[in-house]
Amino acid sequence: MAANKKRAFDGLYAQLEEVNNHVVLFAAKGEPSVIFEMTNPVQQLCTDAEQYLRFQDVLSNIVQTLGEGYSLQKQDVFCKQSYHHEVPEDAEFLTRSYFRYFEGREFTEIRTFLILTQEAQRSQFVQYDPKKWLDFHAKVNKVSDILSEKHIRHRMLSKEEVNEYCHRFMAFQFRHGPFSMTNFKASDEYLKIGNRVVRSYPLVDIDEINLPSLVKPYTQTSINGYAIATDLLSFLTQVPHADCVVYNQVVQIPEQRKLLRKLQGKAKRHGSMPDPSNKIAKADIEEVLQQLAVDSTLLVYTNFNILVSCPVDKVTPVTSYLETKLYECGIMPSRTAYNQLELFTDSFPGNGYAFNPDYDLFLTLSDAALCFFFKEHLKGSEDTPLTTYYTDRQGLPVCIDITGKEGKVKMTDNANFFCIGPSGSGKSFHMNSVVRQLLEQKTDVVMVDTGDSYEGICGYYKGTYISYSKEKPISMNPFKVTKEEYDLNFGEKKNFLKSLIFLIFKGNEFPSKIEDMLINQTIVEYYEAYFHPFTKFTEKEREGLRQKLLVASKMEEDYDKFSHSMEDIDAQIR
Protein backbone atom coordinates (compact mmCIF):
# COMPACT_ATOMS: atom_id res chain seq x y z
CA MET A 1 0.00 0.00 0.00
CA ALA A 2 2.88 2.34 0.81
CA ALA A 3 4.37 1.71 -2.63
CA ASN A 4 1.04 2.50 -4.30
CA LYS A 5 0.75 5.75 -2.36
CA LYS A 6 4.19 6.83 -3.52
CA ARG A 7 3.18 6.24 -7.14
CA ALA A 8 -0.38 7.60 -6.85
CA PHE A 9 0.29 10.49 -9.25
CA ASP A 10 2.33 8.51 -11.77
CA GLY A 11 0.50 8.00 -15.02
CA LEU A 12 -2.71 9.91 -14.25
CA TYR A 13 -2.73 11.05 -17.88
CA ALA A 14 -1.44 9.50 -21.07
CA GLN A 15 -1.33 12.43 -23.49
CA LEU A 16 -2.46 16.00 -24.18
CA GLU A 17 -3.01 16.70 -27.86
CA GLU A 18 -4.73 19.19 -30.15
CA VAL A 19 -6.84 17.20 -32.63
CA ASN A 20 -9.64 18.36 -34.97
CA ASN A 21 -9.55 21.87 -33.42
CA HIS A 22 -10.14 20.30 -29.99
CA VAL A 23 -7.62 20.09 -27.16
CA VAL A 24 -8.03 16.48 -26.00
CA LEU A 25 -6.76 15.21 -22.66
CA PHE A 26 -6.26 11.41 -22.55
CA ALA A 27 -6.52 9.71 -19.15
CA ALA A 28 -4.17 6.89 -18.22
CA LYS A 29 -6.76 4.29 -19.28
CA GLY A 30 -7.39 5.97 -22.62
CA GLU A 31 -10.54 8.07 -21.99
CA PRO A 32 -10.43 11.27 -24.09
CA SER A 33 -11.73 14.49 -22.52
CA VAL A 34 -12.35 18.07 -23.64
CA ILE A 35 -12.47 20.87 -21.03
CA PHE A 36 -14.63 24.00 -21.28
CA GLU A 37 -14.48 26.95 -18.95
CA MET A 38 -17.97 28.36 -18.50
CA THR A 39 -19.98 30.77 -16.35
CA ASN A 40 -22.94 29.42 -14.41
CA PRO A 41 -25.95 31.38 -15.74
CA VAL A 42 -27.76 31.91 -12.42
CA GLN A 43 -26.68 34.92 -10.35
CA GLN A 44 -26.56 34.19 -6.64
CA LEU A 45 -29.55 35.61 -4.71
CA CYS A 46 -31.34 36.50 -7.94
CA THR A 47 -34.59 35.24 -6.30
CA ASP A 48 -35.73 33.80 -9.67
CA ALA A 49 -36.48 30.08 -9.40
CA GLU A 50 -37.10 29.89 -13.16
CA GLN A 51 -33.41 30.48 -13.87
CA TYR A 52 -32.47 27.34 -11.91
CA LEU A 53 -35.06 25.32 -13.81
CA ARG A 54 -33.82 26.62 -17.17
CA PHE A 55 -30.21 25.70 -16.38
CA GLN A 56 -31.43 22.29 -15.18
CA ASP A 57 -33.02 21.82 -18.62
CA VAL A 58 -29.75 22.80 -20.33
CA LEU A 59 -27.79 20.23 -18.28
CA SER A 60 -30.44 17.60 -18.98
CA ASN A 61 -30.19 18.40 -22.69
CA ILE A 62 -26.40 17.95 -22.55
CA VAL A 63 -26.73 14.57 -20.83
CA GLN A 64 -29.29 13.43 -23.42
CA THR A 65 -27.02 14.66 -26.22
CA LEU A 66 -23.97 12.81 -24.89
CA GLY A 67 -25.85 9.57 -24.36
CA GLU A 68 -24.46 6.17 -23.40
CA GLY A 69 -20.73 5.77 -23.00
CA TYR A 70 -20.04 9.34 -21.91
CA SER A 71 -19.30 11.10 -18.65
CA LEU A 72 -20.20 14.68 -17.72
CA GLN A 73 -17.89 16.19 -15.11
CA LYS A 74 -18.39 19.67 -13.69
CA GLN A 75 -15.95 21.35 -11.34
CA ASP A 76 -16.71 24.60 -9.52
CA VAL A 77 -13.60 26.16 -7.99
CA PHE A 78 -14.19 28.61 -5.10
CA CYS A 79 -10.85 30.26 -4.43
CA LYS A 80 -9.82 33.21 -2.26
CA GLN A 81 -8.24 35.99 -4.33
CA SER A 82 -6.83 39.45 -3.65
CA TYR A 83 -8.62 42.30 -5.38
CA HIS A 84 -6.69 44.38 -7.90
CA HIS A 85 -7.94 46.95 -10.42
CA GLU A 86 -5.77 48.52 -13.06
CA VAL A 87 -6.16 52.31 -12.83
CA PRO A 88 -4.86 54.52 -15.67
CA GLU A 89 -2.07 56.87 -14.70
CA ASP A 90 -4.05 59.91 -15.85
CA ALA A 91 -7.10 58.97 -13.76
CA GLU A 92 -8.62 61.51 -11.39
CA PHE A 93 -7.36 61.65 -7.79
CA LEU A 94 -10.72 60.53 -6.40
CA THR A 95 -10.84 57.53 -8.75
CA ARG A 96 -7.32 56.45 -7.80
CA SER A 97 -8.17 56.83 -4.13
CA TYR A 98 -11.39 54.84 -4.57
CA PHE A 99 -9.71 51.76 -6.04
CA ARG A 100 -6.69 52.05 -3.72
CA TYR A 101 -9.09 51.62 -0.79
CA PHE A 102 -10.10 48.16 -2.09
CA GLU A 103 -6.62 47.07 -3.20
CA GLY A 104 -5.69 43.66 -1.78
CA ARG A 105 -9.12 42.95 -0.25
CA GLU A 106 -9.83 39.21 -0.08
CA PHE A 107 -12.80 37.84 -1.96
CA THR A 108 -14.14 34.53 -3.30
CA GLU A 109 -13.86 33.86 -7.03
CA ILE A 110 -15.87 31.15 -8.78
CA ARG A 111 -14.46 29.43 -11.86
CA THR A 112 -16.46 26.67 -13.49
CA PHE A 113 -15.15 23.91 -15.76
CA LEU A 114 -17.26 21.50 -17.78
CA ILE A 115 -15.46 18.30 -18.82
CA LEU A 116 -16.82 15.88 -21.44
CA THR A 117 -15.28 12.39 -21.33
CA GLN A 118 -15.84 9.38 -23.58
CA GLU A 119 -15.60 5.92 -22.03
CA ALA A 120 -12.77 3.86 -23.49
CA GLN A 121 -13.45 0.34 -24.81
CA ARG A 122 -10.95 -1.92 -23.11
CA SER A 123 -10.01 -5.55 -23.17
CA GLN A 124 -6.32 -5.99 -22.55
CA PHE A 125 -5.55 -2.87 -24.55
CA VAL A 126 -7.40 0.31 -25.39
CA GLN A 127 -9.17 -0.22 -28.70
CA TYR A 128 -9.30 2.51 -31.33
CA ASP A 129 -12.67 2.87 -33.03
CA PRO A 130 -12.73 5.55 -35.78
CA LYS A 131 -16.53 5.87 -35.59
CA LYS A 132 -16.45 6.48 -31.85
CA TRP A 133 -13.60 8.96 -32.26
CA LEU A 134 -15.58 11.00 -34.78
CA ASP A 135 -18.68 10.69 -32.59
CA PHE A 136 -16.70 12.15 -29.67
CA HIS A 137 -15.79 15.30 -31.61
CA ALA A 138 -19.34 15.62 -32.94
CA LYS A 139 -20.76 15.42 -29.40
CA VAL A 140 -18.30 18.08 -28.18
CA ASN A 141 -19.46 20.44 -30.96
CA LYS A 142 -23.11 19.75 -30.13
CA VAL A 143 -22.61 20.57 -26.46
CA SER A 144 -20.85 23.82 -27.42
CA ASP A 145 -23.79 24.68 -29.70
CA ILE A 146 -26.27 24.02 -26.87
CA LEU A 147 -24.40 26.37 -24.54
CA SER A 148 -24.17 29.04 -27.24
CA GLU A 149 -27.87 28.76 -28.06
CA LYS A 150 -28.78 29.29 -24.41
CA HIS A 151 -26.38 32.27 -24.19
CA ILE A 152 -24.16 30.58 -21.57
CA ARG A 153 -20.66 31.99 -21.75
CA HIS A 154 -18.09 29.29 -22.37
CA ARG A 155 -14.82 28.64 -24.15
CA MET A 156 -12.61 25.65 -24.77
CA LEU A 157 -9.33 25.68 -22.86
CA SER A 158 -6.14 25.82 -24.90
CA LYS A 159 -3.40 23.25 -24.58
CA GLU A 160 -1.38 25.46 -22.24
CA GLU A 161 -4.45 26.22 -20.10
CA VAL A 162 -5.38 22.53 -19.74
CA ASN A 163 -1.80 21.74 -18.74
CA GLU A 164 -1.81 24.55 -16.15
CA TYR A 165 -5.25 23.52 -14.84
CA CYS A 166 -4.12 19.92 -14.20
CA HIS A 167 -0.96 21.09 -12.44
CA ARG A 168 -2.88 23.63 -10.35
CA PHE A 169 -5.31 20.89 -9.33
CA MET A 170 -2.45 18.66 -8.25
CA ALA A 171 -0.90 21.46 -6.19
CA PHE A 172 -4.43 22.58 -5.21
CA GLN A 173 -3.35 26.16 -5.87
CA PHE A 174 -5.89 28.24 -7.80
CA ARG A 175 -4.83 31.65 -6.57
CA HIS A 176 -3.75 34.02 -9.35
CA GLY A 177 -0.04 34.18 -10.01
CA PRO A 178 2.79 31.66 -9.85
CA PHE A 179 2.50 28.49 -7.79
CA SER A 180 4.74 25.62 -6.80
CA MET A 181 4.47 21.95 -5.86
CA THR A 182 5.35 20.66 -2.44
CA ASN A 183 5.41 17.35 -0.58
CA PHE A 184 2.26 15.29 -0.08
CA LYS A 185 1.50 13.26 3.01
CA ALA A 186 -1.59 11.07 2.85
CA SER A 187 -3.57 9.76 5.81
CA ASP A 188 -7.05 8.33 6.36
CA GLU A 189 -8.36 11.75 7.41
CA TYR A 190 -6.83 14.12 4.85
CA LEU A 191 -3.89 14.99 2.60
CA LYS A 192 -1.25 17.31 3.97
CA ILE A 193 0.25 19.63 1.34
CA GLY A 194 2.91 21.82 2.91
CA ASN A 195 1.26 23.71 5.77
CA ARG A 196 -2.23 23.15 4.38
CA VAL A 197 -4.68 20.28 4.50
CA VAL A 198 -6.88 19.03 1.66
CA ARG A 199 -9.84 16.92 2.70
CA SER A 200 -12.53 15.28 0.59
CA TYR A 201 -16.16 15.20 1.70
CA PRO A 202 -18.28 12.81 -0.41
CA LEU A 203 -21.90 13.91 -0.30
CA VAL A 204 -23.26 10.36 -0.28
CA ASP A 205 -22.40 7.31 1.79
CA ILE A 206 -22.99 4.46 -0.67
CA ASP A 207 -24.01 2.08 2.12
CA GLU A 208 -26.77 4.36 3.40
CA ILE A 209 -27.67 6.92 0.63
CA ASN A 210 -28.94 9.60 3.05
CA LEU A 211 -30.53 11.97 0.56
CA PRO A 212 -33.84 13.88 0.67
CA SER A 213 -36.79 11.99 -0.79
CA LEU A 214 -37.66 14.99 -2.97
CA VAL A 215 -35.01 17.15 -4.64
CA LYS A 216 -35.36 20.27 -6.79
CA PRO A 217 -32.77 22.30 -8.74
CA TYR A 218 -32.97 24.91 -5.97
CA THR A 219 -33.98 25.31 -2.34
CA GLN A 220 -35.88 27.97 -0.43
CA THR A 221 -33.92 30.22 1.93
CA SER A 222 -35.48 32.81 4.24
CA ILE A 223 -33.87 36.27 4.12
CA ASN A 224 -35.47 39.02 6.21
CA GLY A 225 -38.61 36.93 6.46
CA TYR A 226 -38.92 36.36 2.70
CA ALA A 227 -38.38 32.96 1.08
CA ILE A 228 -36.13 33.18 -1.98
CA ALA A 229 -34.68 30.55 -4.30
CA THR A 230 -30.99 29.67 -3.86
CA ASP A 231 -28.74 26.82 -4.92
CA LEU A 232 -28.67 23.69 -2.78
CA LEU A 233 -24.98 24.27 -2.13
CA SER A 234 -24.77 28.07 -2.24
CA PHE A 235 -23.00 27.97 1.14
CA LEU A 236 -19.82 26.76 -0.59
CA THR A 237 -18.91 30.40 -1.28
CA GLN A 238 -18.70 31.05 2.47
CA VAL A 239 -16.83 28.06 3.92
CA PRO A 240 -14.91 29.49 6.92
CA HIS A 241 -11.10 29.18 7.14
CA ALA A 242 -10.95 27.65 3.61
CA ASP A 243 -8.62 29.19 1.04
CA CYS A 244 -9.95 26.97 -1.76
CA VAL A 245 -12.97 24.69 -2.29
CA VAL A 246 -13.53 22.46 -5.34
CA TYR A 247 -16.95 20.92 -5.83
CA ASN A 248 -16.50 17.94 -8.14
CA GLN A 249 -19.67 16.60 -9.83
CA VAL A 250 -19.55 13.48 -12.00
CA VAL A 251 -22.33 11.81 -13.98
CA GLN A 252 -21.58 8.60 -15.91
CA ILE A 253 -24.11 7.44 -18.52
CA PRO A 254 -23.94 3.63 -18.76
CA GLU A 255 -25.71 1.25 -21.15
CA GLN A 256 -29.41 1.62 -20.35
CA ARG A 257 -30.79 -1.77 -21.47
CA LYS A 258 -28.35 -3.69 -19.32
CA LEU A 259 -29.26 -1.61 -16.27
CA LEU A 260 -33.00 -1.95 -16.92
CA ARG A 261 -32.73 -5.75 -17.07
CA LYS A 262 -30.73 -5.67 -13.87
CA LEU A 263 -33.37 -3.54 -12.10
CA GLN A 264 -36.23 -5.72 -13.37
CA GLY A 265 -34.48 -8.84 -12.08
CA LYS A 266 -33.86 -7.13 -8.74
CA ALA A 267 -37.57 -6.21 -8.47
CA LYS A 268 -38.55 -9.83 -9.11
CA ARG A 269 -36.18 -11.06 -6.38
CA HIS A 270 -37.63 -8.57 -3.89
CA GLY A 271 -41.16 -9.64 -4.86
CA SER A 272 -40.38 -13.31 -4.37
CA MET A 273 -39.67 -12.78 -0.67
CA PRO A 274 -42.73 -11.52 1.27
CA ASP A 275 -41.19 -9.00 3.61
CA PRO A 276 -42.18 -5.38 4.34
CA SER A 277 -38.76 -4.00 3.39
CA ASN A 278 -38.77 -6.05 0.19
CA LYS A 279 -42.21 -4.70 -0.72
CA ILE A 280 -40.96 -1.13 -0.25
CA ALA A 281 -37.86 -1.84 -2.34
CA LYS A 282 -39.95 -3.43 -5.09
CA ALA A 283 -42.34 -0.44 -5.12
CA ASP A 284 -39.41 1.99 -5.39
CA ILE A 285 -37.88 0.08 -8.31
CA GLU A 286 -41.21 -0.13 -10.11
CA GLU A 287 -41.69 3.63 -9.66
CA VAL A 288 -38.25 4.24 -11.20
CA LEU A 289 -39.01 1.93 -14.12
CA GLN A 290 -42.31 3.70 -14.72
CA GLN A 291 -40.63 7.12 -14.70
CA LEU A 292 -38.02 5.88 -17.17
CA ALA A 293 -40.79 4.69 -19.47
CA VAL A 294 -42.70 7.99 -19.28
CA ASP A 295 -39.94 10.65 -19.12
CA SER A 296 -36.83 11.14 -21.20
CA THR A 297 -34.58 10.69 -18.19
CA LEU A 298 -31.65 8.27 -17.94
CA LEU A 299 -30.13 6.00 -15.32
CA VAL A 300 -26.71 7.34 -14.34
CA TYR A 301 -23.90 6.60 -11.92
CA THR A 302 -22.90 9.69 -9.96
CA ASN A 303 -20.38 10.97 -7.48
CA PHE A 304 -20.41 14.32 -5.67
CA ASN A 305 -17.32 15.32 -3.77
CA ILE A 306 -16.33 18.54 -1.96
CA LEU A 307 -12.56 19.10 -1.66
CA VAL A 308 -11.53 21.75 0.86
CA SER A 309 -8.12 23.28 1.50
CA CYS A 310 -7.55 24.87 4.92
CA PRO A 311 -4.94 25.19 7.69
CA VAL A 312 -4.24 22.03 9.72
CA ASP A 313 -5.85 23.35 12.90
CA LYS A 314 -9.09 24.37 11.10
CA VAL A 315 -10.19 20.95 9.82
CA THR A 316 -12.68 20.42 12.69
CA PRO A 317 -14.61 23.72 12.32
CA VAL A 318 -14.67 23.31 8.52
CA THR A 319 -16.05 19.78 8.86
CA SER A 320 -18.65 20.94 11.38
CA TYR A 321 -19.75 23.78 9.07
CA LEU A 322 -20.15 21.55 6.02
CA GLU A 323 -22.01 18.83 7.94
CA THR A 324 -24.41 21.41 9.39
CA LYS A 325 -25.13 23.05 6.04
CA LEU A 326 -25.57 19.72 4.26
CA TYR A 327 -27.87 18.49 6.99
CA GLU A 328 -30.06 21.57 6.40
CA CYS A 329 -30.37 20.38 2.78
CA GLY A 330 -31.37 16.89 3.92
CA ILE A 331 -27.97 15.40 3.05
CA MET A 332 -25.88 13.30 5.44
CA PRO A 333 -22.30 13.30 4.10
CA SER A 334 -20.19 10.18 4.31
CA ARG A 335 -18.34 9.73 7.62
CA THR A 336 -16.30 6.77 6.39
CA ALA A 337 -14.31 8.45 3.61
CA TYR A 338 -10.97 6.95 4.57
CA ASN A 339 -9.74 6.66 0.97
CA GLN A 340 -8.71 10.34 0.88
CA LEU A 341 -5.81 9.93 -1.56
CA GLU A 342 -7.96 7.88 -3.93
CA LEU A 343 -10.80 10.42 -3.80
CA PHE A 344 -8.35 13.21 -4.55
CA THR A 345 -6.76 11.52 -7.59
CA ASP A 346 -10.15 10.36 -8.92
CA SER A 347 -11.38 13.98 -8.83
CA PHE A 348 -8.77 15.21 -11.31
CA PRO A 349 -10.23 16.78 -14.46
CA GLY A 350 -10.89 14.13 -17.10
CA ASN A 351 -10.80 11.33 -14.53
CA GLY A 352 -14.57 10.78 -14.48
CA TYR A 353 -14.22 7.03 -15.02
CA ALA A 354 -11.61 6.49 -12.29
CA PHE A 355 -14.09 6.14 -9.38
CA ASN A 356 -14.55 2.70 -7.90
CA PRO A 357 -18.12 1.55 -8.71
CA ASP A 358 -18.28 -0.56 -5.51
CA TYR A 359 -17.99 2.26 -2.98
CA ASP A 360 -17.72 5.63 -4.81
CA LEU A 361 -20.65 5.63 -7.26
CA PHE A 362 -24.38 5.32 -6.73
CA LEU A 363 -27.18 4.78 -9.23
CA THR A 364 -29.94 7.35 -9.70
CA LEU A 365 -31.98 9.16 -12.34
CA SER A 366 -30.23 11.86 -14.37
CA ASP A 367 -32.78 14.56 -13.47
CA ALA A 368 -32.27 13.91 -9.77
CA ALA A 369 -28.48 13.87 -10.13
CA LEU A 370 -28.43 17.19 -12.01
CA CYS A 371 -30.31 18.85 -9.13
CA PHE A 372 -27.08 18.56 -7.11
CA PHE A 373 -25.04 20.42 -9.75
CA PHE A 374 -23.94 23.89 -8.66
CA LYS A 375 -25.69 26.52 -10.78
CA GLU A 376 -24.72 29.98 -9.46
CA HIS A 377 -22.20 32.69 -10.16
CA LEU A 378 -21.38 35.73 -8.05
CA LYS A 379 -22.25 39.27 -9.06
CA GLY A 380 -19.78 40.73 -11.55
CA SER A 381 -19.38 43.93 -13.55
CA GLU A 382 -21.86 44.56 -16.32
CA ASP A 383 -20.89 45.14 -19.93
CA THR A 384 -21.69 48.85 -20.25
CA PRO A 385 -19.92 51.95 -21.64
CA LEU A 386 -21.32 54.08 -18.78
CA THR A 387 -19.41 52.73 -15.78
CA THR A 388 -20.79 53.42 -12.33
CA TYR A 389 -19.16 51.41 -9.54
CA TYR A 390 -20.96 50.03 -6.50
CA THR A 391 -19.80 47.47 -3.95
CA ASP A 392 -21.26 43.95 -3.99
CA ARG A 393 -22.03 41.70 -1.01
CA GLN A 394 -18.33 40.84 -0.71
CA GLY A 395 -17.43 44.53 -0.47
CA LEU A 396 -15.82 44.73 -3.91
CA PRO A 397 -16.39 47.33 -6.66
CA VAL A 398 -18.60 46.10 -9.50
CA CYS A 399 -19.69 48.14 -12.50
CA ILE A 400 -23.46 48.70 -12.74
CA ASP A 401 -25.50 50.32 -15.50
CA ILE A 402 -27.77 52.52 -13.36
CA THR A 403 -29.63 53.79 -16.43
CA GLY A 404 -30.78 50.33 -17.45
CA LYS A 405 -30.44 51.28 -21.12
CA GLU A 406 -26.75 51.95 -21.85
CA GLY A 407 -25.39 48.45 -21.21
CA LYS A 408 -25.29 45.39 -23.43
CA VAL A 409 -28.54 44.19 -21.83
CA LYS A 410 -31.26 46.78 -22.47
CA MET A 411 -33.70 46.65 -19.55
CA THR A 412 -35.59 49.91 -20.11
CA ASP A 413 -35.85 53.02 -22.27
CA ASN A 414 -36.47 55.23 -19.23
CA ALA A 415 -33.34 56.24 -17.35
CA ASN A 416 -35.14 57.82 -14.37
CA PHE A 417 -34.53 56.39 -10.90
CA PHE A 418 -35.25 57.20 -7.25
CA CYS A 419 -32.80 57.42 -4.37
CA ILE A 420 -34.99 57.04 -1.29
CA GLY A 421 -33.96 56.84 2.35
CA PRO A 422 -34.55 58.43 5.75
CA SER A 423 -32.66 61.46 6.96
CA GLY A 424 -28.96 60.73 7.48
CA SER A 425 -28.99 57.46 5.51
CA GLY A 426 -26.43 58.68 2.98
CA LYS A 427 -28.51 59.73 -0.03
CA SER A 428 -26.42 62.82 -0.78
CA PHE A 429 -23.16 60.94 -0.19
CA HIS A 430 -24.29 58.24 -2.61
CA MET A 431 -25.35 60.73 -5.28
CA ASN A 432 -22.05 62.62 -4.94
CA SER A 433 -20.27 59.36 -5.79
CA VAL A 434 -22.56 58.72 -8.76
CA VAL A 435 -22.21 62.29 -10.07
CA ARG A 436 -18.42 62.14 -9.71
CA GLN A 437 -18.25 59.03 -11.88
CA LEU A 438 -20.59 60.52 -14.47
CA LEU A 439 -18.58 63.74 -14.67
CA GLU A 440 -15.33 61.84 -15.17
CA GLN A 441 -16.92 60.23 -18.24
CA LYS A 442 -17.69 63.65 -19.79
CA THR A 443 -21.40 63.46 -18.98
CA ASP A 444 -23.41 66.70 -18.74
CA VAL A 445 -24.98 66.93 -15.28
CA VAL A 446 -27.60 69.49 -14.18
CA MET A 447 -28.74 69.28 -10.54
CA VAL A 448 -31.39 71.11 -8.55
CA ASP A 449 -30.37 71.08 -4.89
CA THR A 450 -32.10 72.53 -1.82
CA GLY A 451 -29.50 71.74 0.80
CA ASP A 452 -26.12 72.74 -0.72
CA SER A 453 -25.07 69.07 -0.70
CA TYR A 454 -23.38 69.32 -4.09
CA GLU A 455 -21.63 72.68 -3.83
CA GLY A 456 -18.35 70.96 -3.01
CA ILE A 457 -18.31 68.63 -6.03
CA CYS A 458 -19.43 71.50 -8.26
CA GLY A 459 -16.46 73.57 -7.10
CA TYR A 460 -14.05 70.60 -7.40
CA TYR A 461 -14.96 70.08 -11.06
CA LYS A 462 -15.18 73.85 -11.73
CA GLY A 463 -18.87 73.79 -12.53
CA THR A 464 -21.38 76.64 -12.42
CA TYR A 465 -23.20 76.86 -9.11
CA ILE A 466 -26.27 79.13 -9.01
CA SER A 467 -27.72 79.81 -5.57
CA TYR A 468 -31.10 81.31 -4.73
CA SER A 469 -31.96 83.94 -2.16
CA LYS A 470 -34.88 86.31 -1.66
CA GLU A 471 -32.61 89.27 -2.32
CA LYS A 472 -31.22 87.68 -5.51
CA PRO A 473 -33.85 85.35 -6.88
CA ILE A 474 -32.98 83.11 -9.80
CA SER A 475 -34.31 84.47 -13.09
CA MET A 476 -34.09 83.32 -16.66
CA ASN A 477 -35.07 84.51 -20.12
CA PRO A 478 -36.83 81.59 -21.87
CA PHE A 479 -36.88 83.55 -25.14
CA LYS A 480 -33.10 83.75 -25.34
CA VAL A 481 -31.95 81.43 -28.12
CA THR A 482 -28.37 81.11 -29.32
CA LYS A 483 -27.43 80.82 -32.97
CA GLU A 484 -26.28 77.22 -32.38
CA GLU A 485 -29.61 76.30 -30.76
CA TYR A 486 -31.50 77.94 -33.62
CA ASP A 487 -29.55 76.02 -36.26
CA LEU A 488 -29.60 72.63 -34.54
CA ASN A 489 -32.71 72.30 -32.42
CA PHE A 490 -35.14 75.19 -32.98
CA GLY A 491 -38.14 72.88 -33.40
CA GLU A 492 -38.10 71.71 -29.77
CA LYS A 493 -37.34 75.21 -28.48
CA LYS A 494 -40.24 76.63 -30.55
CA ASN A 495 -42.67 74.07 -29.09
CA PHE A 496 -41.50 74.93 -25.56
CA LEU A 497 -41.99 78.68 -26.15
CA LYS A 498 -45.42 78.10 -27.68
CA SER A 499 -46.48 76.05 -24.64
CA LEU A 500 -45.16 78.76 -22.30
CA ILE A 501 -47.04 81.54 -24.15
CA PHE A 502 -50.31 79.60 -24.10
CA LEU A 503 -49.85 78.85 -20.38
CA ILE A 504 -49.61 82.61 -19.70
CA PHE A 505 -52.26 83.51 -22.27
CA LYS A 506 -54.86 80.78 -21.84
CA GLY A 507 -54.00 79.04 -18.55
CA ASN A 508 -55.31 75.44 -18.53
CA GLU A 509 -57.59 76.13 -21.50
CA PHE A 510 -56.61 74.57 -24.82
CA PRO A 511 -55.90 77.11 -27.62
CA SER A 512 -57.88 77.06 -30.82
CA LYS A 513 -56.38 75.93 -34.08
CA ILE A 514 -56.18 79.49 -35.41
CA GLU A 515 -54.48 80.75 -32.20
CA ASP A 516 -51.98 77.91 -32.38
CA MET A 517 -51.21 78.73 -36.01
CA LEU A 518 -50.85 82.47 -35.37
CA ILE A 519 -48.53 82.10 -32.36
CA ASN A 520 -46.48 79.47 -34.19
CA GLN A 521 -46.07 81.74 -37.23
CA THR A 522 -45.24 84.73 -35.04
CA ILE A 523 -42.45 82.82 -33.22
CA VAL A 524 -41.03 81.52 -36.49
CA GLU A 525 -41.03 84.94 -38.14
CA TYR A 526 -39.68 86.67 -35.03
CA TYR A 527 -36.59 84.45 -34.77
CA GLU A 528 -36.17 84.40 -38.54
CA ALA A 529 -36.04 88.18 -38.48
CA TYR A 530 -33.74 88.13 -35.43
CA PHE A 531 -31.15 85.76 -36.86
CA HIS A 532 -31.54 86.87 -40.47
CA PRO A 533 -32.27 90.67 -40.25
CA PHE A 534 -33.11 92.67 -43.38
CA THR A 535 -30.29 94.72 -44.84
CA LYS A 536 -31.17 95.15 -48.50
CA PHE A 537 -32.83 93.41 -51.41
CA THR A 538 -30.80 91.23 -53.71
CA GLU A 539 -30.75 91.99 -57.42
CA LYS A 540 -33.15 89.15 -58.08
CA GLU A 541 -35.55 90.36 -55.36
CA ARG A 542 -35.32 93.93 -56.67
CA GLU A 543 -36.20 92.83 -60.18
CA GLY A 544 -39.19 90.85 -58.94
CA LEU A 545 -40.51 93.76 -56.90
CA ARG A 546 -39.95 96.18 -59.81
CA GLN A 547 -42.10 94.03 -62.08
CA LYS A 548 -44.89 93.85 -59.50
CA LEU A 549 -44.88 97.61 -58.93
CA LEU A 550 -44.89 98.30 -62.65
CA VAL A 551 -47.92 96.06 -63.12
CA ALA A 552 -49.71 97.83 -60.23
CA SER A 553 -48.86 101.22 -61.73
CA LYS A 554 -50.21 100.26 -65.11
CA MET A 555 -53.46 99.18 -63.57
CA GLU A 556 -53.90 102.30 -61.40
CA GLU A 557 -52.61 105.07 -63.74
CA ASP A 558 -53.00 106.18 -67.32
CA TYR A 559 -50.42 104.83 -69.69
CA ASP A 560 -49.31 108.37 -70.50
CA LYS A 561 -48.49 109.03 -66.86
CA PHE A 562 -46.79 105.65 -66.46
CA SER A 563 -43.44 106.66 -67.88
CA HIS A 564 -43.22 109.60 -65.44
CA SER A 565 -43.56 107.28 -62.37
CA MET A 566 -40.68 104.92 -63.29
CA GLU A 567 -38.15 107.01 -61.41
CA ASP A 568 -40.33 106.89 -58.28
CA ILE A 569 -40.65 103.09 -58.50
CA ASP A 570 -36.89 102.63 -58.83
CA ALA A 571 -36.38 104.84 -55.80
CA GLN A 572 -38.80 102.74 -53.70
CA ILE A 573 -37.00 99.40 -54.23
CA ARG A 574 -33.41 100.51 -53.83
Summary?
The protein is an alpha+beta fold. Helix content is 39%, strand content 19%.
Protein described:
The model has no long low-confidence stretch (mean pLDDT 86). This protein has 5 domains: 2-377, no CATH class; 379-418, no CATH class; 425-475, no CATH class; 483-531, no CATH class; 539-572, no CATH class. Strand 1 (13-19) and strand 2 (22-27) form a beta hairpin. By secondary structure, it is of the alpha+beta class. The strands form 4 sheets. Strands 1, 2, 3, 5, 6, 7, 8, 9, 10, 13, 14 and 15 form a 12-stranded antiparallel beta sheet that branches. Strands 4-16 form a two-stranded parallel sheet. It has helices spanning 2-6, 49-66, 93-102, 130-149, 159-171, 256-272, 276-294, 315-328, 340-346, 366-370, 427-440, 455-460, 483-506, 513-531, 539-556, 559-572; strands spanning 13-19, 22-27, 32-38, 42-43, 70-82, 106-118, 154-156, 184-186, 191-193, 196-202, 219-223, 226-230, 244-253, 299-311, 362-365, 376-377, 388-391, 397-400.
Task: Compile the SSE list and pairings.
Layout: H1 2-6, E1 13-19, E2 22-27, E3 32-38, E4 42-43, H2 49-66, E5 70-82, H3 93-102, E6 106-118, H4 130-149, E7 154-156, H5 159-171, E8 184-186, E9 191-193, E10 196-202, E11 219-223, E12 226-230, E13 244-253, H6 256-272, H7 276-294, E14 299-311, H8 315-328, H9 340-346, E15 362-365, H10 366-370, E16 376-377, E17 388-391, E18 397-400, H11 427-440, H12 455-460, H13 483-506, H14 513-531, H15 539-556, H16 559-572
Parallel strand pairs: 4-16
Antiparallel strand pairs: 1-2, 2-3, 3-6, 3-7, 5-6, 5-13, 8-9, 9-10, 10-14, 11-12, 13-14, 14-15, 17-18
Helix pairs in contact: 2-4, 6-7, 13-14, 15-16
